[in-house]
Amino acid sequence: MSVKVRFAPSPTGKLHVGNVRTALVNWMFAKGQGGSFVLRIDDTDLARSTAEFEQGIEDDLAWLGLLWDERDNQSKRFDRYEDAAARLKASGRLYPCYETAEELDRRRKVQLSRGLPPIYDRAALELTDEQKAAYEAEGRRPHWRFKLDGKRVAWEDLARGHAEVDTASMSDPVLIREDGLFLYTLPSVVDDIDMAITHIIRGEDHVTNTGAQIEIFEALGAPIPGFAHMPLLVGADGAALSKRLGSLSISEMRDLGYEPIAITSHLGRIGTSDPLEVGASIQALGESFAFSKMGRSPARYDTADLDRLNAQALHAMSYAVAQPRLADLDADLGEGFWEAVRPNLQKFADVIEMAAIVRGPITPVIEDAAFAEAALAVLPETIDASLWPTWTNAVKEATGAKGKGLFMPLRLILTGQSHGPDMATIAPMIDRDRIVKRLKGEAA
Predict the structure, then answer these.
(1) Does some domain include residue 396?
(2) Are 196 and 4 in contact (CB under 8 A)?
(3) How many domains does the chain have?
(4) Which of 1, 36, 116, 388 could crosslink 424 through cysteines, CB 3.0-4.6 Å?
(5) pTM of the prediction?
(6) H or E element: which one contains 324?
(7) Alpha carbon distance 265, 310 (integer Å)
(8) Does residue 428 share a domain with residue 379?
(9) Annotated binding site: which residue ranges?
(10) Do both 309 and 324 map to the same domain?
(11) Structure confidence by residue, pLDDT tens digits, 369-395
(12) 111: in domain
């Protein structure tokens, strides 16, 4: 059986880390087994869905390298949902209910006060045709519930192992609202059937939904796909993921300077037995993925780990890969420059500041004018690859400074910073006139 999975985001907002982790695990599982990945836009809520958000979803997935093999919109498939609803109505599995939200809320409170579970009591099944007509006459429109079998639904979950849901403890789910809008459950099942989805991979907060959906698959006479319910993300401290981090969109992360491979490596490997390191490529992440590596505990989302992986990705980036981006930032000073500065990059845009070291302008930091004057006096006439050892030895002889007392003042004067790229490599890239000006305390 060829693996086929789907990611079905709603275009009512931007993709955030939780969404992308679901998309990523689906993509890795499929690609690791030579299968296919379907992007299915859940835009049945026409009032809230926008073309802008839909385009943003596509842009974010493409930027991350999560390219899809098939693409569809649920808004184009209402006829299929109507057909399925008609079949369920004809078989008595989808039935009309006329209670208002207020009436249902009062009923739940009464059940709770009596120590009963607050599940729907199926009172609508007892309505006569006359009662239904009376409700219609007063302007009520029904919502439609799926009649559960009330049994133990079991499956072998790829992420959780053996799983069971007792649908007798659940309310019959609403599949169609009073205004005729299809809720998520029925369109999702119909699409999974029509598109021959073999595995449904999502968060463990959908486990209960799966029990109901399996019964809908059965009621429609369709084969049951495989399921995997992943542990959810939590913060670095093990508490619920903060709203600030949990809602951080991929477009915002891109603007903050994170690399796609750092994001996918982080989200793809947290909560697994794989080392938290940058993958060689998105394809390599897929090839190494297995649900057997995924733990049962919540995955800890720590931005410190993401920052580390981002730096790791930059430190390993070749000049050939970096060159077009360097050119876009007007910071392409050649391969030697890239090799010198990349070990110090945390975000790619840091290269702009690094380029200023070579071509200016920077404001030198001079803590000892006499030291700077002495260093200027022994500055070699020719600036070449031997500059740093030759010059520092001469400055040492002239001032008696050594160790940090020798190298740090020179770094501060030439770069304006107390840290940065290897001076033996970067210093020869600065022309002599600029070095002279900086030694004199002039911005250059």
Answers:
(1) yes
(2) yes
(3) 4
(4) 388
(5) 0.92
(6) helix 319-328
(7) 9
(8) yes
(9) 243
(10) no
(11) 999 999 999 999 999 999 999 999 999
(12) yes
